[in-house]
Specification:
The complex is a heterodimer of chains A (895) and B (312).
Chain A: E1 2-6, E2 9-13, H1 22-27, E3 48-51, E4 54-57, E5 70-72, H2 84-91, H3 101-119, H4 126-132, H5 143-155, H6 171-175, E6 191-197, E7 203-209, H7 211-215, E8 219-224, E9 231-232, E10 238-244, H8 247-254, E11 258-263, H9 270-274, E12 302-305, E13 308-311, H10 320-333, E14 338-345, E15 348-349, E16 357-363, E17 367-372, H11 377-387, E18 395-398, H12 414-426, E19 430-433, H13 436-443, E20 445-446, E21 448-457, E22 463-473, H14 482-489, E23 495-502, H15 517-534, H16 539-546, H17 551-562, H18 564-567, E24 578-593, E25 598-604, E26 607-611, H19 621-633, E27 641-643, H20 660-687, E28 693-695, E29 698-701, E30 704-707, H21 708-715, E31 718-723, H22 732-736, E32 745-762, E33 768-778, H23 785-804, E34 810-811, E35 816-817, E36 836-840, H24 858-861, H25 863-875, E37 881-882, H26 886-892
Parallel strand pairs in A: 1-5, 6-19, 14-37, 17-18, 22-23, 26-27, 33-36
Antiparallel strand pairs in A: 1-2, 3-4, 3-5, 6-10, 7-9, 7-11, 8-10, 12-13, 13-23, 14-21, 15-20, 16-17, 16-19, 21-22, 24-32, 25-26, 25-31, 28-29, 29-30, 32-33, 34-35
Helix pairs in contact in A: 2-5, 3-5, 14-15, 15-16, 15-25, 19-20, 20-21, 23-25
Chain B: E1 2-4, H1 8-13, E2 17-19, H2 23-31, E3 38-40, E4 50-52, E5 58-61, H3 66-71, H4 73-78, H5 80-86, H6 92-97, H7 100-105, H8 153-160, E6 164-167, E7 173-174, H9 176-179, E8 197-202, E9 210-216, E10 227-236, E11 239-248, E12 255-256, H10 258-264, H11 271-278, H12 293-310
Parallel strand pairs in B: 1-3, 2-3
Antiparallel strand pairs in B: 4-5, 5-8, 6-7, 6-8, 9-10, 10-11, 11-12
The chains are: A alpha+beta (895), B alpha+beta (312).
């Protein structure tokens, strides 16, 4: 028996098993789910607790070692007892999805205590903060705000008893550990499910015998999860699922399941898959091959040649034949304005800190309650109903808080099917939550890419034509669209876009924030700088000629040209060892929205509510809806009750493609206005009020003031539902792509951005250090500038990771990801993030409803290219691939 | 089963893997790479001390945490390189948990080893999947069948201090014998089963010697090194009369670089000396197909540490 003190209470712990760690106790018997399990290896710090005031990772801390010690978890500082660090995180919006937040808060408290003891109420520098928080990772990239929050708290800005008014609606829940994520859901009698995965990339499952496993104590159910053809197409593909009383028992039992495989040779990796003699991932007649979808849209019909799939029709071509002929002719004549480049981008793994997770519970034979860490509650519920042959209204899907999505948690994936199946078999609630290895190996990644871009410009840089041919690497999935995107956002001149996928025996790629964007802009914007150099032109001049009639891109370029960092870039070249350079890149993203979205705004005596079946994955949707309603009624956003994160309400958009803000903001405002006008009219007539006008918090009239609640008490509960409605389509083909009400439409116009990045390249050691990032964004009206800023900062951080660090390493023999952990797969830490500046240019969407569009994708698509161009200016070596690693620098840069 | 040892005798008699701070043991058990009985030694307070004998050597208990090492006044003043390293290794949270002993004896951080699917020499199997697979983080000096760098940053640092180690009931032995010559791929250290590391002993500090630790990484912090270097130098009247250079991250054992050391001693403490000596850091290197880039980074890291120690 271990005697310890947790959050001031004496606790006796009887260890469940040898080697039990503190997090297992806290989250299990302790009921303290504010402590989060993310990497499980002591790297990410999401599980950080304070032990006798010292920060420790509870995922590695043995329970025996807290005997006689005092443990503080995030729950210690509740809403009435907030630590200055918590207030600072709230006020500075130093959090997004919130999953890393409890750990960050505890590490920051330890840093704050140490800092205050040594330096009093003074402001620490960035380097000191970075060193203190080196053991915490935030995948959303809230680091710029975390620097600010910690510095301000240390300086004493939050020492008093003052209340705080955070820009993020649910900030208090996230800084106190009260926010509930799918992994935190626990029903009475709940089982833990684990997946049985194929050992081989390509095999036929001849037989599975789970009888020995089922005979183990504590093992409750096993179910097969096989394709109709019983084939596996990647190592790790789920072939079964097993439920037990706890995860350890389930994992142990999994080893006792006997699988008989017929193993076939596989084509792991695109190089092998492309070879003439490579085994085919899919066989049979072209039209009947249906690989999983790596995109957020519809997979267009394709033509197969071996494992290479080419999209049949391109809707971004323009005079394609002419473009191809121009390029071909130019190859013979080799004018200086012909530039051809082949770029390669490694696979980037989403690795959301909350893993893919599902808790399923059947209520009777045909009603299903599902908690799922998802970006699409509405669509997800529908797909689950379809998959399990249920009526839509009998499936309730909930995602109250989602610990990161970034595109990788859409639709219904294996963890949901497994949990629902096991729950059905066992008759008990079942949770399936991936461990980090599964999350990184199998759950979601941004496809690798190879792009051949040939562009012909005249002597002043004006483009005449281009061809672009991309090969996506999304394992068994298809539907990448880098060439399509280049055609959509690149110069509007004759062009031929060839869109291809190489399927191979690897796990399926999925959309990742700005799908195909970082790759497409890497190619486009790296080429633009090479053209500038070839023709001895300024990089900004070249881009003006690429987009001559584009007033908004013109303004973005003006903004960049005026930045001191850009103006002085030739003067600040560093020295022979530390080379400095500044690069820029344009970015753009199509305008996506869901015209079928509906929002309900209502008034009860308890206050106003807003309801829509969408979700907040850390992007600020709750805050947006609350603010939209609050502004109409002249009340505080915190007074509006926001009902989202579950299916069954008015249809809401998926949190993908930057479609949410535009899909819900307009209807929320309109519904609120109708409700307000209705209330005023009803009150005027019923109460006989004269000269009633809306005032903050209620209506003013001849006889004084009525608060909204008093009015509602008189006229009764009311609500108004408003639909987003549609806009003119991007083009006819885009309209045809709209297959159902859950999918976004492509409207007209692009949101646009420019990123300017300054780097320092250490030629001795190969390290590239970003020194500053500046981004301007033109996405029309910005609804919530403070949260938009946070999201852009996060996009920048993810883009820096893409440019400089992140690469999945596949073992070609086994077909498995080797660096499937956060120790060997490098996502940016706080010390990797330089000062960031964000500027909004609120133009471009004046004619659409809401007048503003989302910015999530736009914030990341051009970042890597700006880093590449900065490295190029710094060193004279133009990188063609991402990530740009120290190994590349020492190999390529001449000293 | 688990034994919570309250005396050395209990620890020695109990069967199972020793666990000190638990950072490595817990991670391996969670991954399913390690299992079996445990002997928790974290309560053996006698190994939680740092003491200096009258004639100068310093004994550091194996259970001293990295954080304690980085802050202890004796270490900070007399063995500053060690304190520097201990304050930079791993992450703040890990430094509060991980012990000196565990840091020396942790198992390899090779991603193949820690991936439950793969078998390898260190898991009792035959062969090394990294050799023909992914190994850009592998060794530059291919000394034996296992090609992942030894993980112990403290190992490299202590080699430069010419430390020895003590196990229960044995005479002190030079630290390099703890790691062996890298030829046996099954082991990360040469301790016999059940042998308990109790102390590390540092010779008296050299008057006037300066130390510098440098770690080359791709990100700013919290990353296993591409190469790491501990340098100790003494410059007397403009010339280097004492040099110790040890490196990690480049071989399956921490190593002293004798060629670099001898190219420094007796030479003037000027940049050209340091550059010439650093250039010898790769003497004897046998890179893998994926690790050739480490040669320049090792030379650069050695030079960086030399410059810092020499303060040129």
């Amino acid at each position: 028996m271990i005697h310890t003190i947790i959050n001031g209470r004496e606790v006796d712990i009887e260890p469940y098993h040898d080697g039990e760690t503190v997090i297992e106790f806290l989250r299990g018997r302790g009921g303290l789910t504010g402590t989060k399990m993310a990497c499980g290896g002591g790297v990410c710090g999401a599980c950080t607790v304070l032990v006798d005031g010292r920060p420790m990772v509870s995922c590695l801390l043995p329970v025996e070692q807290i005997a006689g010690r005092e443990v503080l978890t995030i729950e210690f500082h509740g809403p009435s007892n907030l630590h200055p660090i918590q207030k600072a995180f709230m006020v500075h919006d130093a959090l997004q999805c919130g999953f890393c937040t409890p750990g960050f808060i505890n590490s920051s408290i330890a840093f704050y205590d140490g800092w205050r003891a040594a330096h009093g109420a003074t402001r620490p520098g960035r380097e000191e903060i970075a060193a203190g928080l080196a053991g915490n990772l935030c995948r959303c990239g809230a680091y710029p705000a975390i620097y600010e929050a910690v510095a301000e708290a240390c300086a004493g800005a939050f020492d008093g008893d003052q209340g705080v008014d955070p820009p993020r609606y649910e900030a208090l829940d996230k800084v106190t550990g009260r926010a509930k994520y799918t992994v935190d859901v626990r029903h009475e009698g709940q089982l833990e499910g684990v997946l049985l995965r194929s050992k081989y990339p390509r095999a036929k499952i001849v037989a599975i015998d789970a009888s020995e496993a089922l005979a183990e104590e504590g093992v409750i159910a096993f179910g097969e999860l096989l394709e109709n053809d019983r084939l596996t197409r990647y190592a790790g593909q789920p072939i079964g699922a097993l439920a037990a009383l706890d995860r350890r028992t389930a994992k142990q039992a999994l080893k006792r399941v006997k699988v008989v495989y017929d193993v076939y040779p596989a084509a792991v990796g695109p190089e092998r898959a492309r070879e003439r003699d490579a085994p085919e991932v899919y066989s049979g007649f072209s039209l009947f091959r249906s690989p999983p979808n790596a995109s957020e849209g519809t997979v267009m019909p394709g033509r197969w040649k071996g494992n290479v799939r080419r999209m049949l029709i391109s809707f971004t071509d323009k005079s394609a034949g002419r473009a191809a002929r121009s390029i071909k002719k130019a190859r013979r004549e080799a004018p200086p304005g012909l530039l051809e480049m082949t770029t390669r981008n490694a696979v980037q793994v989403h690795t959301t800190l909350e893993p893919h997770a599902c808790v399923a519970k059947w209520e009777g034979g045909d009603r299903l309650t599902v908690h799922l860490s998802t970006q699409s509650v509405a669509h997800g519920a529908h797909l689950i109903a379809e998959h399990f042959d249920l009526d839509d209204e009998n499936v309730t899907l909930t995602a109250e808080h989602v610990g990161g999505g970034f595109g990788g948690k859409q639709g219904v994936s294996d963890e949901a099917i497994a949990a629902i199946t096991l729950a059905h078999q066992s008759g008990r609630p079942v949770r399936v939550a991936y461990d980090r290895l599964e999350e990184m190996s199998f759950a979601a990644y941004r496809p690798g890419m190879e792009i051949k871009l040939s562009i012909l410009a005249d002597r002043d840089g004006t483009p005449e034509a281009y061809t672009v041919d991309s090969h996506g690497d999304a394992g068994i999935a298809a539907g990448t669209g880098a060439s399509t995107l280049v055609g959509l956002v690149g110069p509007d001149v004759p062009r031929k876009t060839i869109q291809q996928d190489i399927v191979s025996h690897g796990p399926p790629g999925r959309p990742f924030r700005g799908p195909d964007g970082p790759q497409a802009f890497w190619a486009l914007e790296r080429v633009a700088d090479d053209i500038a150099e070839r023709l001895a032109l300024d990089p900004i001049t070249v881009r003006r000629r690429w987009y001559p009639d584009d007033a908004i891109r013109g303004k973005l370029l003006d903004w960049a040209a005026a930045l001191p960092a850009w103006r002085e870039r030739e003067a600040n070249r560093g020295d022979d060892r530390y080379r400095r350079g500044v690069g820029l890149a344009l970015g753009a993203w199509p305008f996506l929205y869901n015209g079928d979205s509906q929002v309900t705004v209502g008034a009860t005596v308890r206050g106003f509510f807003v309801r829509v079946s969408t979700q907040d994955i850390g992007t600020g949707t709750r805050s947006l809806l609350a603010q939209a309603v609050a502004d109409v009624f002249g009340i505080a956003a915190s007074q509006v009750q926001v009902d989202l994160g579950r299916s069954g309400g008015p249809l809401g958009p998926a949190s993908g493609g930057s479609q949410v803000s535009n899909s819900v903001y307009g209807p929320a405002v309109a519904a609120a206005e109708q409700l307000r006008d209705g209330l005023v009219a009803a009150a005027t007539s019923k109460l006989g009020l004269a000269e009633a006008t809306v005032a903050p918090g209620g209506i003013r009239h001849g006889n004084g003031f009525h608060a909204w609640s008093a009015l509602v008490a008189e006229v009764g509960t009311q609500s108004v539902e408003e639909k987003r409605g549609s806009e003119p389509a991007y083009n006819l083909l885009a309209e045809l792509l709209l297959v159902d009400k859950y999918m976004p439409s492509i409207g007209r116009g692009l949101s646009k951005s420019i990123t300017v990045t300054r780097v320092e390249v250490d030629t001795r050691l190969g390290r590239i250090r970003p020194l500053g990032v500046w981004m301007a964004v033109a996405a029309g009206k910005i609804f919530l500038p403070r949260l938009a800023r946070s999201q852009i900062q996060g996009g920048i951080v993810q883009g820096l990771g893409y440019a400089l660090h992140e690469a999945r390493q596949m073992d070609l023999a086994s077909g498995l990801m080797v660096n499937a952990n956060l120790e060997d797969y490098y996502i940016p830490g706080i010390g990797d993030v330089p000062p960031v500046e964000v500027q909004f240019i609120e133009e471009g969407f004046e004619s659409i409803r809401g007048q503003g569009v989302g910015i999530g994708e736009l914030a990341t698509v051009g970042v890597a290219a700006s880093v590449g161009n900065a490295v190029r200016q710094a060193t004279g070596w133009g990188p063609l691939k991402t990530p740009i690693l120290p190994a590349d620098v020492v190999r390529e840069v001449r000293r | 089963m688990i034994t919570i040892a309250t005396t050395i005798e209990e620890a020695i008699q109990a069967k199972g893997e020793y666990r000190a701070g638990g950072t490595d043991v817990s991670a391996r058990r969670r991954l399913g790479v390690s299992n079996g009985s445990l002997v928790d030694i974290s309560a053996l307070d006698s190994f939680r001390e740092i003491s200096q004998a009258d004639d100068g050597p310093t004994a550091i208990g194996a259970l001293i945490t990295l954080q304690e090492l980085s802050e202890h006044s004796l270490i900070v003043e007399q063995y500053p390189g060690l304190a520097q390293l201990a304050g930079r290794a791993a992450t703040p949270q890990i430094r509060h948990m991980a012990t000196l002993g565990g840091s020396l004896l942790q198992r390899t951080r090779c991603a193949y080893y820690r991936h439950p699917h793969f078998d390898c020499f260190k898991k009792g199997g035959e062969g090394c999947p990294a050799r023909d697979g992914f190994h850009v983080d592998g060794v530059l000096f291919d000394l034996g069948p296992c090609i992942h760098p030894h993980p112990s940053s403290t190992g490299a640092a202590l080699l430069s201090y010419e430390a020895s180690y003590l196990t229960h009931g044995r005479e002190p032995r030079p630290l390099q014998t703890l790691f062996g010559d890298g030829s046996d791929p099954a082991i990360d250290n040469s301790l016999a089963p059940g042998e308990l590391l109790t102390q590390v002993i540092l010779p008296p500090p050299i008057d006037g010697a300066r130390a510098a630790y440098f770690r080359a990484t791709s990100r700013a912090q919290a990353e296993w090194p591409i190469a790491e270097v501990m340098v100790r130098l003494r410059v007397t009247e403009g010339s280097i009369d004492f040099a110790r250079v040890a490196v990690g991250g480049v071989a399956n054992i921490p190593m002293r670089l004798a060629a670099v050391e001898s190219a420094l001693e007796g030479k003037p403490a000027i940049e050209t000396t340091l550059q010439a000596a650093a250039g010898l850091a790769t003497e004897g290197a046998r890179p893998l197909p994926g690790t050739e880039y480490k040669a320049q980074i090792l030379v650069g890291a050695v030079l960086e540490a030399l410059e810092r120690a020499a303060d040129t």
